[in-house]
Design goal:
By secondary structure, this protein is mostly helical. It starts with a helix and ends in a 6-residue tail after the last helix. It is built from 14 helices and no strands. Among the domains are: 139 residues, no CATH class; 51 residues, Alpha-Beta Plaits (2-Layer Sandwich), CATH 3.30.70. It binds iron/sulfur cluster (3 copies).
Length: 272
């Protein structure tokens, strides 16, 4: 039973958030939303402990499709970064602002970039592409993320300054166009750089929040130096080029870790 403590704790944390927001906002949606996500993630961790090899992909599909199809397309909530700026400017702590606070700003202090490994609907598609481990060395293109981050902010600020009408309609169309662009650029880059996660490494604006916050993450993959034989397999299978054998927080690409556990699964000495 002890080995199932992690999924139980995850479920309890999500239920606490679900109940708190339900009562605070007097809206049953929050109970459903956070319970669903908590159950999906806890199920994935449970399946991982049971050594089911597709555990992470199942969570990705359960959460990613829910957010893209139900919240995005059916409920017409822009859950991308433009939606976050939009709600922030209107001063409302709703939908995208809550989502960003939990999954991408404060949550990473606990679970790092778990969002990127288990829930993101962009990576949900990119992870189906053929280059699961990078086929080329990493490039120095990370600066592009700051450009896309600034562009998203300028876009929403310009709408407010221009006092654009039908902001909700514009944000919904921005969500559709933004997603189509993300998928197109992500797929092209994956094939060009032989790396499924090239979009995450160089373009995604959300990493501007995710990287600094996940630096302090409570959950981290650590290496038992007594067991490690320096075979290098963990680095070869890592989709994000993390030097996971270095236990310091400053390890190479440490803030890129998406907690996918490929290194853990592939370590022949069970040192991770
Ligand atoms: S880096 Fe961006 S696109 Fe990649 S998984 Fe994270 S949030 Fe999604
Ligand atoms: S795969 Fe395991 S044994 Fe090999 S370098 Fe990584 S941690 Fe060490
Ligand atoms: S393989 Fe290991 S170090 Fe690399 S992203 Fe996955 S969990 Fe993190």
């Amino acid at each position: 039973m002890k080995k199932y403590v992690t999924p139980i704790v995850i479920l309890a944390v999500f239920e606490a958030v679900a109940i708190t927001l339900w009562l605070a906002k007097d809206n049953l949606f929050y109970l459903f939303n956070f319970s669903y996500i908590g159950i999906s993630i806890a199920l994935g961790v449970f399946l991982f402990i049971r050594k089911y090899r597709h555990a992470r992909r199942i969570v990705q599909l359960l959460v990613g499709l829910y957010m893209l199809v139900y919240l995005g397309l059916i409920s017409r909530e822009n859950m991308q970064i433009e939606g976050f700026w939009y709600y922030l400017f209107t001063g409302v702590f709703e939908a995208a602002t809550i989502h960003y606070a939990v999954a991408k700003i404060f949550g990473p202090l606990i679970f790092g970039r778990g969002w990127c490994g288990y829930a993101c609907w962009t990576a949900m598609v990119l992870d189906f592409l053929p280059y699961k481990t990078p086929g080329q060395p990493r490039r120095k293109l990370g600066w592009i993320r700051y450009v896309t981050f600034a562009a998203s902010l300028v876009f929403v600020a310009a709408l407010f300054l221009a006092r654009a009408g039908d902001m909700e309609g514009i944000m919904f169309r921005a969500f559709i166009i933004g997603n189509v662009l993300y998928y197109a650029v992500g797929i092209i880059l994956a094939f060009a750089f032989r790396d499924n996660r090239a979009f995450c490494k160089y373009i995604c604006p959300i990493t501007v929040f995710l990287k600094p916050m996940s630096y302090y993450s409570l959950f981290r993959v650590k290496c038992d130096k007594e067991k490690c034989v320096s075979c290098g397999k963990c680095k070869r299978v890592c989709p994000m080029n993390v030097d996971v054998t270095d236990n310091s927080r400053k390890r190479e690409n440490g803030t890129e870790c998406i907690l996918c556990m490929e290194c853990v699964k592939n370590c022949p000495e069970e040192a991770l």
